[in-house]
Amino acid sequence: MDYQIIPVTAFAQNCSLIWCPVTLQAAVVDPGGDAEKIQAAVAEKGVTVTQVLLTHGHLDHVGAASDLASFYGVPVVGPHRADAFWLDALPVQSQMFGLPDCTPVKPDRWLEEGETVQVGDARLEILLCPGHTPGHIVFFDRAARLLVSGDVIFSGGVGRTDFPQGSHEDLIDAIRRKLLPLGDDVTFLPGHGPLSTLGRERISNPFLQ
Asked: 100 exposed, middle or buried (CB, 10 Å; 0-12, 13-18, 19+)?
């Protein structure tokens, strides 16, 4: 699996363009905004977008999802159904941050832990990692040792849990029980900030000590 991080919006959110190097089929993960910037990156890479993937329902991760899905004629896939209330509330989230109205996103497919998503020849495993939001999922390419972690874990940090239905205890439990056992060699693409590895965070992340 190849990837490119595309920082978008004033929130400096990491939209991830991921693609299969064999088939050049691609997915856009967490397009928080700046649809034209994402489209330009897709065109530059010469890949074919087959789906828009969402880790969770916060505005800064889904703001351009509907526009891109319409532009490419592809489905929106994810997150877990427990985040439906966040997606329904996108107009309210927009008003809270003084941003242009964002219409509610209706995924074509909700995702459950244990399911998989194909991007070309690449197989992404789905893990449910609640805490930042109740329906937050992550995408794991076991063969490539690559994790798209959304706002669960960051380089030197973890996701906020002071939002409705957030839980710091659930978040740390998900990281310890589901993510760290994937292996120290796993590189993760976080929703914000620089890339890191699970091994580095297991040793140095202050929230996991």
From this structure: exposed
Q: Which domains does the chain have, with CATH numbers?
A: 2-208 (3.60.15.10)
Q: Cβ–Cβ contacts within 10 Å for residue 25, how many?
A: 18
Considering the entire predicted model, what is its pTM?
0.96
pLDDT in tens, the chain (209 residues): 999 999 999 889 999 999 999 999 999 999 999 999 999 999 999 999 999 999 999 999 999 999 999 999 999 999 999 999 999 999 888 877 776 678 789 999 999 999 999 999 999 999 999 999 999 999 999 999 999 999 999 999 999 999 999 999 999 999 999 999 999 999 999 999 999 999 999 999 999 99
